[in-house]
Design goal:
With 170 residues, this protein is an alpha+beta fold. It contains six helices and five strands; from the N terminus they run ααβααβαββαβ. The strands form two sheets. It has a three-stranded mixed sheet with strand order 3-4-5. A hairpin with a 2-residue loop joins strand 3 and strand 4. The radius of gyration is 22 Å and the shape is elongated. The model has no long low-confidence stretch (mean pLDDT 81).
Length: 170
């Protein structure tokens, strides 16, 4: 098994373990009777009706109207605490999944760069945000800079590559 394949397997296992732990944590809180979003819910519930209207929920800047409607299970135009908690848990998991996806892409990119004999000893930094990858560092010639970009662009999940590698002569 190549170093690239080993890194992919390791990264996949790590990502899966972290994701499962995050989901289990939310489920554990609810099973223990904890109400992790209750303070936020109560702060938004200005009329103290024990439900959130869309007008009240809008004060939560991360909440979208389509999500409000999707989690309004009984379609009464408001969210109970339970509906709100489910929405917030789901939103948190989506944010976490996106971050894990970026971490996974970064892992695959670094592994791909390490697999390339001409690049593996170079210090090339990799940053990923929503599938957009920024690579930076120093190389000795333009062909190495170009090769690094080609390799990164070939990694599954990469949407775009910003190549900030600097060619330093001598």
């Amino acid at each position: 098994m190549s170093k690239f394949q080993q890194a992919i397997v390791f990264g996949g296992l790590l990502t899966a373990a972290i994701t499962l732990n995050a989901f289990a944590f939310d489920l554990k809180e609810v099973k223990n009777g904890d109400q992790p979003y209750l303070d936020g819910f109560n702060a938004l519930d200005k009329d103290q009706s024990q439900t959130l209207s869309w007008a009240e929920a809008q004060a939560d800047s991360g909440l979208k109207h389509q999500d409000f409607n999707a989690f309004d299970a009984n379609k009464d135009g408001s969210l109970s605490y339970q509906e709100y908690a489910e929405l917030k848990t789901s939103a948190g998991q989506e944010i976490f999944k996106a971050a894990m996806s970026d971490s996974w892409i970064t892992t695959k990119v670094k592994a791909r760069l390490l697999e390339e004999e001409a690049l593996k000893s170079l210090k090339i930094s990799v940053e990923t945000h929503q599938g957009d990858v920024l690579i930076s560092g120093f190389v000795s010639d333009v062909t190495l800079k170009s090769r690094a970009e080609q390799l990164v662009a070939s990694v599954e999940g990469v949407k775009s590559v910003k190549n900030a590698i600097v060619v330093k002569e001598g």
